[in-house]
Amino acid sequence: MTMEPSKPGQLGVTLDTIENGGPADEAGLDTGDVVTSFNGHRITADVQLQALVLKYAGGDTVTIGYERDGQQQEIQVTLASVPDE
What is the distance in angstroms between the CA of the first residue and the CA of the last residue of the chain? Predict the structure, then answer.
C-alpha cells in the first residue's frame, strides 16, 4: 500500500496503490480511498498513519475509517507482519 503525501490542513491520507492480497485489499480498501482514522485516531498526515501502523503487531485487528465517493465508512483490518530486513 502506498499513500500520497498529505497536504497541509487536509484530513486523511489518499491511498495510491493497494497490494493485491494484502491486508488493505482483503479488507476491501481501494485505490483512491481516503483513510481518515486508524483505531480512533484522526489521521492528518501520511507519516502519522505509518507510525500508528507500526505500533501494532501482525495479526492485530484495527478499525479504519475512510471516505469513498463522499461516503464515510469503517472497516476492520487485520494487519500483516512486517518482514525483518
Answer: 18
Which neighbouring-strand residues pair with 65?
Answer: 37, 74
Cα dihedral 57, 63, 67, 73 sign:
positive
E strand segments, the chain: 2-3, 13-17, 34-38, 41-42, 61-68, 71-78
C-alpha cell at 2: 502506498
Give the tens place of pLDDT for each residue, 55-75: 999 999 999 999 999 999 999
Q: What's the rounded Cα separation, in Å, for the pair 46 and 7?
A: 9
Task: State the DSSP code for 54.
Answer: H
pTM: 0.83
Longest dimension (CA), the chain: 38
Give the position of cell 481516503. Answer: 34
C-alpha dihedral over 70, 38, 43, 66, to 10 degrees?
-10
